[in-house]
Amino acid sequence: DYAFMTISLISFLVLYALSSMLTTKLTNTNITDAQEMETIWTILPAIILTLIALPSLRILYLADEINNPSFTIKSIGHQWYWTYEYTDYGGLIFNSYMLPPLFLNPGDLRLLEVDNRVVLPIEAPVRMMITSQDVLHSWTIPTLGLKTDAVPGRLNQTTFTAMRPGVYYGQCSEICGANHSFMPIVAELIPLKIFEMGPVLTL
After folding, report:
1. Cytochrome oxidase subunit II copper A binding domain: from which residue to which, for each copy (predicted)?
2. CB-side exposure of 155: number of CA atoms within 13 Å?
């Protein structure tokens, strides 16, 4: 709303200037130099853009940081599969491979289904710690608005709070090798009460 009001005022001012130039008769056409005016219309837009950007940067920083997440899971990219670590639940670790076409059930999505889905709760802030063991990967689920690079030797994090249960599909969106499109990501989001019964039961 703040940015929209600022943009609206600027638009009205520009429209007024254009309309006045088109409808009024120019009384002085000999002005060729206006240093003060050029200085103002160079500095003023820079100040306005700064005032618009600062609140947005603050909101972006606050939205990216969760100090006390309800749940933390670590995802490690390999060529070409994912490893998930449930560190909050006794160090549960498992690999997630793409299912070959011969093992698909009716209704499964080809090249997107995996043997072990990552199970996450809804209505709770979740922090994903993402890294890689070999080359650059990218942990991406477009329908959840998540895309975080997995970099060897670096631990990146992303946070989200899903509000609807379901199965969400994604793929590695970094060109990490010949089979980078064959390391899908499947997140199964379930109600928090069911999740608290134990993630092992849902895998």
Report:
1. 68-201
2. 5
Tens digit of pLDDT for each residue in 36-68?
Answer: 878 888 898 889 888 888 888 888 877 767 778
Among 172, 68, 75, 168, which Cα is nearest to 126's?
68
Query: If you average pLDDT over residues 179-202, what whole number do you get?
Result: 80
Quote the tokens at residue 54.
């600062």
Residue 43 tokens, joined: 């500095």
Residue 16 CB neighbour total at 10 angstroms: 10
Interatomic CA distance for residues 99 and 111, integer angstroms? 7
Length of the chain equals 203
Tokens of 35: 């240093």
Domains along the chain? 1-20+36-64 (no CATH), 71-197 (2.60.40.420)
Phi-psi region of 123 (alpha: psi -120 to 50; beta: other; left: phi over 0): left
2 membership: H or E segment, kind and range: helix 2-23
Exposure pattern of 137-172 as b/e (b: 16+ CB <10 Å)?
bbbbbeebebebbbbeeeebbbbbebeeeeebbbbb
